[in-house]
Amino acid sequence: MRKYIFGLILIGLLLLSAGCAIEKKVEKGDTIKVDYVGKLQDGTVFDTSVLEEAKNAGIYNESRIYEPLTLRIGDGSTIPGFENGILGMKEGETKTISIPPEQAYGPKDPNLIGNLPKKIDEILKIEEQSRFDEIPRTFKATTSAFVTRYGTQPVVGMVIDLVGWPGQVIQVSGTEVVIENKPEIGESVTNEVITYTVTDITTDNIIVRLDPQIGDVWTTYFGESTVLEVTDKTIKLENRPKKQIETPYGIAYSIESKDSYTIKLDPKVGDTIVLGDQIGLVTQVNSDDYVVDLNDRLAGETLYFTVTTIIIEKGKETGFFEKYRLFIFGSLLIVVFAAAYVFMTKFYSKEEKEKKKEKPKAKKTKAVKEEMNGELKELASTVEEVQKGLDTKKEAKAKPKKPKAKKMTSKKKKE
Prior knowledge:
By secondary structure, the protein is α+β, with helices and mostly antiparallel strands.
């Protein structure tokens, strides 16, 4: 009986160990947290989530928070090779992933590599410009910027306040809003440095006339301009550039000559510049120009990531067994121990009861035997006593009786 009970307990323990042995693995739809160190083929660390690794590699950024990366497998938030390499990893496992360019940032596109001139502008010391300027009649804005400024979602036909005159929403599509300027001819607007007046409205543009005062100072991207003279059609300005000028292409310097200032860049290999919505890397510098690579800095590179999975949270797309494995093995374990308990209480207890029943019978039989032996002994003793009595009587009958002496009479006494 004991061997059966031991077998059931052993099965339960095996199920429990099997449930614990099957660890969670990364699958599509899971949300995970990982620490990583990214290296190039030559061993250069280009990115990491670990603070000490960043400091050791000399790429520490004070504005960044170094902590495990959180991502949901399958949402495309990271490069394909990174996700594919993590699939199947166990919680707490560390693995090195090799990712070819095709699964990383792609090969280099030669069309995104070009030359740019160092000279970006020529500013006259004394300049004349027209008093009239054109403003586009319509312009675009993002929906988020519109909501931030006006505190409401854009709706076609909505009238809003612009700088000095009203505007009207004429189109809303996706994340963009198209707004039309709605000034009136003759309307004047004064900003921080200048007054301008609407003189005409065409199909595409609004014509404004600049109305500065002599001595006004205008702020420009390169420095300052002072109004020297105003006529019906022109404005004479004196320009004074700063020595160092911040531009989208980097820091530029103003070089003074007899009648003008040359605004020129002084790029260095490794500098980054912004061209529209693209960021470029300076890869070569020549006498009059420089080479800019607008490809991603990791394009064409094979990447090596050392990844450690810290937390795996199973998603909806996870397989049923993988998601509920602990529940399944726990249930099986409960069933096994319940069966063992039932078996013990039903069969083992029955056997014990039978043994208990047998024991009293044995005790009763022994008592009866002892009682009968006592009675038999007592009976034998009685029989023995009776037998002795009978024997005594027989002996008495067998012996002759002595004659009794007769008493003498008184007469004989007298004689």
